[in-house]
Amino acid sequence: MSFQDFLEDYWGAGLRPQHYDDWSKKKLGCFLEILTDNYLFHQGGPALDHLESLKEIYPLLAHGVGLNIGSVEPFDDAYLKRLKGFLQRFQPKIISDHCCFIGVGQRYAFDLLPLPRNQSSLAIMKKKLDYLQDYLDRRFSIENVSRYISYESDEMGEIEFLVEVSRSTGCGILLDVNNLYVSSRNEGFSWQDELKQLEPSMVTQYHIAGHQDFTDYLFDSHDQIIKTDVWQVLKEAWRAVGSHPVILERDDDAPWSELAENWRPYVQLG
Fold this sequence. Notes:
eight-stranded parallel beta barrel, 19% strand
């Protein structure tokens, strides 16, 4: 299989409400990723109706931002209950959230905060993922976040940390190639060396997105055309760990034309 063939068979995009009609009418042969937090607290209405229609057309993946997996605090039981019900209803192929924390003690950062890469954080992640996967009765995948800081207590690299969690819990890894590239530039490590540590059985999915270059640092903005260097990271990841769904994330400044422009060189959009 060539890289082109891989993209044609495994491409997809994050579902955003402004594109409901586009996806319904075009009926493209791809994956759609649902941002679960946009739907968990709906009791009904058009948003869930759209998902019911789309699940008959597309294989769905579920991705969240609110689990707070890396926090020292236990999971929110009400959140978990709603998540489990959502997964039972829509039956996504893959479910995921981020390897991070978002708040402590009812104080939330409204951002994805990176964990110190040390044994203490590993212990927290292992304990909570064991509980989560048992509760959901599903394999769960964790995603690497973009990093703008390092901790003095860091003991290992980005991918090494994820690999250790995966080996211990059996969880999957959602490899965000843009986040890996952004973090490698910001922290000064080699993304090529990081990829060598992954095992094919661990990776379940890829994310790819655009970023902004502020000279001193890169920012994972999800509002730009994807850079050539990031496509190269995806190509090398595919060579290393194989074919998995590739979800293009576009959150801000996201007309359908911009989404299509990223994929058009690689797939037929009709």
